[in-house]
């Protein structure tokens, strides 16, 4: 087995940019490549090819350094303020039964719910099913098919600036959490880079997400990107921490959890759904949850905010 493909992957992964459309689609599978690369030094060791062993150890170590920290808990700041329980779900063009989603909100005692692919019928169904009894405040832009989003909250909301690229609406809101500074929440959902002509709106949609300054910021949703994409790494470099990685659950995959094929091939699951947390807030727990009629797992994090 040659080390060259793994070495090329490692070099591309370390470049601080998404170098090509095909790479944007491929880099999401870096954890699998890192795991597969372990076979090369083992083969070199068995065959006593010492130069190949040394080179392959460097490559495998580089890939492991990119991936393994997500499975190691740590990185929380010493936040001592109120708790905020955040749930996010991609509804797959409004297909999730409203009652199932409300049951999950009730079970997790979610304070804030961010939704992606929120359609007018899904928004109406949620209200008919009683979402207002649990989360009475909302800011939403329901749109047919995949472009809508919304934020529902136990606490009062003030609508923020809508982020819109490629007709995908990423709703933002200020949440008035008792005992905490102002909290800014974005329901994240840039367009998916399935085709080369969509890469621009995907990149712009991620680049337009606010950086962690001013209010305490939380970005929650379907980023259509993993922590191996350069644009996600830029957000982490700016100060955000990923709730899943902070709790040691960063290798938990979220899409697709149902059988999904592309060009006839099954797609290994990857981590597209995230809750990115302000550097002043701590992630106490993280989990994923299944909902029927969607190919994304819902993501949930219990956060501790700074005190006011």
Automatic annotation (TrEMBL):
Keywords: Endonuclease, Hydrolase, Membrane, Nuclease, Transmembrane, Transmembrane helix. The keyword Membrane applies. Signal peptide: none annotated. GO terms for molecular function: endonuclease activity. This is Endonuclease/exonuclease/phosphatase family protein. Residues 87-296 form the Endonuclease/exonuclease/phosphatase domain. The chain crosses the membrane at residues 27-46, 53-72. InterPro entries: Endo/exonu/phosph_ase_sf, Endo/exonuclease/phosphatase. It comes from the Bacteria. The keyword Hydrolase applies.
């Amino acid at each position: 087995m040659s080390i060259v493909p793994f070495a090329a992957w490692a070099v591309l992964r370390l470049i601080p940019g998404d170098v090509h459309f095909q790479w944007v689609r491929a880099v999401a599978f870096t954890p699998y490549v890192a795991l597969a690369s372990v076979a090369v030094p083992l083969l070199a060791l068995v065959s006593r090819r010492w130069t190949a062993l040394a080179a392959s150890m460097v490559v495998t170590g580089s890939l492991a350094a990119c991936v393994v920290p997500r499975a190691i808990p740590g990185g929380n700041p010493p936040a001592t303020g109120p708790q905020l329980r955040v749930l996010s779900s991609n509804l797959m063009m409004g297909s999730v039964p409203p009652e199932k989603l409300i049951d999950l909100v009730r079970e997790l005692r979610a304070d804030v719910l961010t939704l992606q692919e929120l359609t007018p019928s899904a928004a109406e169904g949620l209200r008919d099913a009683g979402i207002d009894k649990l989360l009475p405040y909302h800011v939403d832009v329901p749109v047919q098919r995949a472009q809508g989003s919304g934020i529902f909250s136990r606490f009062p909301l003030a609508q923020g600036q809508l982020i819109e690229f490629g007709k995908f609406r990423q709703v933002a809101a200020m949440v008035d959490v008792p005992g905490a500074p102002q909290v800014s929440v974005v329901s994240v959902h840039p367009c998916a880079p399935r085709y080369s002509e969509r890469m621009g709106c995907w990149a712009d949609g991620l680049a337009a997400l606010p950086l962690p300054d001013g209010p305490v910021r939380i970005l929650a949703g379907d980023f259509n990107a993993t922590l191996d994409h350069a644009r996600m790494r830029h957000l982490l470099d700016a100060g955000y921490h990923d709730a899943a990685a902070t709790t040691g659950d960063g290798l938990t995959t979220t899409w697709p959890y149902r059988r999904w094929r592309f060009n006839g091939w099954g797609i290994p699951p990857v981590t597209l759904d995230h809750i990115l947390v302000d550097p002043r807030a701590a992630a106490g727990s993280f989990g994923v949850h299944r909902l029927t009629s969607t190919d994304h797992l819902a993501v949930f994090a219990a956060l501790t905010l700074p005190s006011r």
